[in-house]
Write a structure and sequence with these properties.
The complex is a heterodimer of chains A (about 240) and B (about 475). With about 240 residues, chain A is an alpha/beta fold. Chain A contains three helices and twelve strands; from the N terminus they run ββααβββββββββαβ. Chain B is an alpha/beta fold and about 475 residues long. In chain B, strand 6, helix 4 and strand 7 form a beta-alpha-beta unit. Classes of the chains: A alpha/beta (about 240), B alpha/beta (about 475). At the A-B interface, helix 1 of A face helix 5 and helix 7 of B.
C-alpha cells in the first residue's frame, strides 16, 4: 500500500496516486489489520464506485465530487461526500449513513434495504426508486418518478417533487414540504398522523435539517388499489 | 364442435364438420380464434400463464448432424473419452466457473418454485458438476447450501438482493430480459406470496408482486458498463459477471453486453419459460432460440471475442441433441429451466410420496381446469405435483433427495447424448462441434441456422436466394 497512515486510526488515500480498485480492496480487507477507522479520499475527481461494498463501521470522507454508485451496497460505514455525486449514490444500501453535501444525479438510494441517505441539495429523477427499507432525506427538490415502486422506508423531500411522485408505491411513505407537481399511479396524499410527526422529526434530526418543522410536510402513501391484479387496472399494470 | 366454458375448443367434434354441416371453416377466424374472442369477451382480461411459447417455430429438431463417414473419422462411441468440461467467465474473473458439463440450470425463483425444489435443483446440479441459478426473489439458504456452484441473479426488481449473498455467490448474472417476455417485468400473484416469500421481497404477504422491467439504478448500455464495474468492485473482481438478454435484437444486444464488460452472455430464446406472464407476450415477442444462437455467435465473432466471452443459450433446450446443436452453432453452454421441472415431475399424472409411492394428481389437475401434459398454471400456486407452489402441503410432494436424483439422471443422460453425437462427428471435445457438422431439414431452419438445406449446398440468404 502506497498510501500514508497518518495516525493509528486515520488514513489519507489519494486517488491520483492509487486507483479506486485499490481503495475498495483496502476498505474491504485492509482496514482491520491496520486498525484504521477513518479514511479521507483525496482527488476523487468524479470517479465511479468510491467506497462500494463496505461492511465495517469506518468513516469515509470523500474530499470532492464523486461519480456513479458512491457508497453502493453500504453496510455500517459512514460515508460523506464533500461535493456532488452522480447516478445511483448509495444504491442497495443496507445500513450505515451516506451523506452528500451537494447535488446528486438520478436514482439516488435505489433499492436500499436499510440505512440513511442524506442529500443536502437537490436530487434528480427517480430518487428512492424501488426502496426496500432505507430512508432518504433530501434538503432540496427531487425529480420526476421519485419513489417509483418504493416498497418500504421513508423519503423526505424538503423542497418540491416532480411529476409522477410515488408511482406504484407499496408500503413506503413520502413526506414532502414543498409542491408536488403530480402524483403517480396509486399514490395519494393522506393526513399526517402523530406517528408521522415522530418519524419525520427523527429523520430531520438525523439529517441535521433543523430549519424545517414536521408540521410543514404532507404525507404521500399508497392507495393500495394496485395490490391485486384485475381488469379495472389495464394501464397501471 | 362446441366451446367449453373456459373457451377451450373441443376438438373431438371437429372431424369432417365442413363436410357434414356444409360451409368452409375460416382460416383467419377458425374455431380456436372464435373461442378465444368469446373468452376475452366473457372475462374482460387477458390470460396469464406459465411455461414458454407453445406455437411451432423453427427449432433444433429441424437440424441433423452429418456424422463421420469416409471423409470424417469418428471416435469410438462407448470407449474413447469426449471432454465435456466447460469453463465460464474466464475473461475478467479471478475465479471462473469450471463445470463438468456444458449444461447448466437456468434462473428460477424461490417464490415461483418451492424451497424443496430449489434444494433439489442445487443437489442434482452439484452431483453432475454444474451450476444452478437463483431467480427473482433472492437466494435461499437451502439453495446456497445445496449448490456447489450458484449463480446469483441481479434483476430489475432487486428483491432480496444484498451484498452478503452477492459475496457468497460463485457468479452474478445481470438480467436484462428473458425469452418468454423480453422487455417485460414479472408478476407473482398474491396466492404465491407466503410469509417467507414476502419477507425476502420486503412486501406484505398475499399481495400481487410486480417485478419491474427496468433496472432501478442504470438505464442504457453505457450505464451497464459502470454497473458491471460496481459489481466487480464489490466482489473484488473475483467472480464472473454474466449478462442475460431475451432474444430480440440479438446481435446488437450481445455486442453491447460484451462492450459493457460481460464475461458471459446468456441469450434466452422465445421458447424460454416463465412462471407467469401474459399469454400474448409469451407467444408474440422475441425470436426463436435457433435464430438467436446464430446471431449471438456472429456478434462474438465480429468482435473477435470467441473463447474470451462465453455464450450460454437457453429457451427450449430439452435433449442432448438440442445441446449438441446449440454448441455446434456457437454456444459454449446451455441452460435449462422447463425441462428440468419436467424431470422433477411437472405435468406428470402422479407425484411420489416420500419419493417412492406414486399418488395420482388427477383431481388436482381437474381443479385447475387442466390435465397432465397440458398444465401451464404455475401462476396459481396450486401445482398438482408440488413444484411451482408455496403451499406447505403441496410442497411436500417433491422430496428434495428424490428430486435431486431425478435431476442428476436427466442431466447425465443429456451429457451422455451430447458426447455421443460429438464422438460420432469425430470430436474429442464437445466444444469442437461446429456449424459445418449440421444441415437443415427445412428452408426456414437453414436460413436461420445458416447451414445448408440437407442434400444441397444452399444456405438461404448466404449462398444465393
Amino acid at each position: 500500500m502506497e498510501q500514508e497512515v497518518r495516525s493509528r486510526k486515520a488514513l489519507e488515500w489519494d486517488l491520483s496516486k492509487s486507483p479506486v480498485r485499490e481503495l475498495n480492496n483496502y476498505l474491504h480487507h485492509g482496514l482491520a489489520q491496520d486498525g484504521v477507522e477513518e479514511v479521507r479520499v483525496l482527488n476523487p475527481d468524479g470517479a465511479h464506485h468510491i467506497a462500494v461494498g463496505l461492511d465495517t463501521p469506518v468513516k469515509v470522507e470523500v474530499m470532492g465530487n464523486a461519480g456513479y454508485y458512491v457508497g453502493g451496497m453500504n453496510k455500517q460505514a459512514e460515508i460523506t461526500v464533500h461535493g456532488s455525486a452522480g447516478w445511483s449514490v448509495a444504491e442497495n444500501i443496507m445500513s450505515g449513513v451516506v451523506r452528500i453535501e451537494g447535488y446528486v444525479s438520478e436514482c439516488a438510494g435505489a433499492s436500499g434495504h436499510g440505512g440513511l441517505l442524506v442529500i443536502e441539495k437537490d436530487a434528480s429523477s427517480r430518487c428512492g426508486i424501488s426502496m426496500k427499507g432505507n430512508d432518504i432525506v433530501v434538503g432540496g427538490d427531487v425529480g420526476h418518478f421519485s419513489a417509483f415502486m418504493a416498497q418500504k422506508g421513508y423519503l423526505v423531500v424538503c423542497g418540491d417533487a416532480g411529476d409522477g411522485l410515488g408511482d406504484s408505491l407499496y408500503e413506503a411513505v413520502i413526506y414532502v414540504r414543498g409542491e408536488i407537481k403530480s402524483l403517480g399511479a396509486d399514490a395519494q396524499e393522506e393526513p399526517m398522523t402523530d406517528e408521522d410527526y415522530v418519524v419525520l422529526a427523527g429523520l430531520l434530526e438525523c439529517a441535521g435539517f433543523d430549519d424545517y418543522r414536521p408540521e410543514e410536510f404532507k404525507r404521500v402513501a399508497s392507495a393500495r388499489k394496485l395490490y391485486h391484479w384485475n381488469s379495472e387496472h389495464d394501464q397501471e399494470y | 364442435m362446441t366451446d367449453k366454458p373456459d373457451g377451450e375448443v373441443d376438438h373431438a367434434l371437429q372431424e369432417n364438420d365442413a363436410v357434414t354441416h356444409g360451409g368452409q371453416e375460416s382460416f383467419l377466424y377458425n374455431r380456436d380464434v372464435q373461442a378465444w374472442v368469446r373468452k376475452a369477451a366473457n372475462r374482460g382480461i387477458y390470460d396469464i400463464r406459465g411455461m414458454g411459447a407453445k406455437r411451432k417455430v423453427p427449432h433444433f429438431d429441424d437440424l441433423v448432424f452429418l456424422t463421420a463417414s469416409a471423409s470424417r473419422y469418428p471416435l469410438e462411441g462407448y470407449r474413447e473419452r469426449c471432454e465435456t468440461r466447460t469453463v465460464l467467465g474466464s475473461r475478467n474473473a479471478k475465479r471462473p466457473l469450471e463445470l463438468d458439463t456444458p449444461i447448466t440450470i437456468a434462473g428460477m425463483s424461490f417464490g415461483s418454485l418451492s424451497a424443496n425444489v430449489k434444494e433439489a435443483l442445487g443437489r442434482g446440479a452439484s452431483a453432475v458438476g454444474t451450476s444452478t441459478t437463483t431467480g427473482d426473489g433472492g437466494m435461499t439458504d437451502e439453495e446456497r447450501r445445496s449448490s456447489k456452484m450458484l449463480v446469483y441473479q441481479c434483476l430489475p426488481s432487486r428483491y432480496g438482493f444484498n451484498p452478503d449473498d452477492l459475496r457468497r455467490a460463485d457468479a452474478v448474472e445481470v438480467v436484462i430480459g428473458q425469452g418468454a417476455k423480453p422487455g417485460g417485468g414479472g408478476m407473482l400473484l398474491g396466492q404465491k406470496i407466503s410469509e417467507r416469500v414476502a419477507s425476502m421481497r420486503t412486501l406484505p404477504a398475499g399481495i400481487d408482486q410486480r417485478s419491474a422491467s427496468r433496472h432501478p439504478d442504470w438505464t442504457g448500455p453505457d450505464d451497464l458498463t459502470i454497473k458491471i464495474e460496481e459489481l466487480r468492485e464489490i466482489t473484488d473482481w473475483e467472480i464472473p459477471i454474466y449478462v442475460k438478454i431475451g432474444a430480440t435484437r440479438v446481435e446488437n444486444d450481445v455486442k453491447l453486453a460484451v462492450k459493457a464488460g460481460a464475461d458471459v452472455v446468456v441469450v434466452d430464446g422465445m421458447q424460454g419459460g416463465t412462471a407467469a406472464t401474459q399469454d400474448v407476450y409469451i407467444e408474440h415477442a422475441g425470436i426463436p432460440t435457433l435464430a438467436a444462437v446464430v446471431q449471438a455467435n456472429a456478434a462474438l465473432e465480429e468482435l473477435d471475442v470467441k473463447g474470451e466471452v462465453q455464450l450460454v443459450v437457453s429457451g427450449g433446450i430439452r435433449t442432448g441433441a438440442d445441446v449438441a446443436k446449440a454448441i455446434a452453432l456457437g454456444a459454449d453452454a446451455v441452460s435449462i429451466g422447463q425441462a428440468v421441472l419436467l424431470a422433477l415431475g411437472c405435468n406428470d399424472h402422479v407425484w411420489y410420496k416420500d419419493g417412492k409411492t406414486p399418488v395420482s394428481a388427477a383431481e388436482d389437475y381437474e381443479k385447475l381446469g387442466t390435465r397432465p401434459g397440458l398444465c401451464h398454471h404455475m401462476q396459481t400456486g396450486r401445482c398438482p405435483v408440488g413444484i411451482t407452489t408455496q403451499d406447505p402441503e403441496l410442497e411436500k410432494r417433491v422430496d428434495p433427495e428424490w428430486g435431486a436424483k431425478r435431476l442428476r439422471n436427466y442431466l447425465q443422460v443429456l451429457n451422455m447424448e451430447v458426447a455421443t453425437l460429438a464422438r460420432a462427428c469425430g470430436k474429442s471435445d464437445v466444444h469442437h462441434l461446429e456449424r459445418e457438422d449440421l444441415v437443415a431439414l427445412t428452408i426456414e431452419s437453414a436460413a436461420m441456422a445458416k447451414v445448408p438445406l440437407a442434400g444441397t449446398d444452399w444456405i438461404p440468404g448466404v449462398t444465393g436466394f
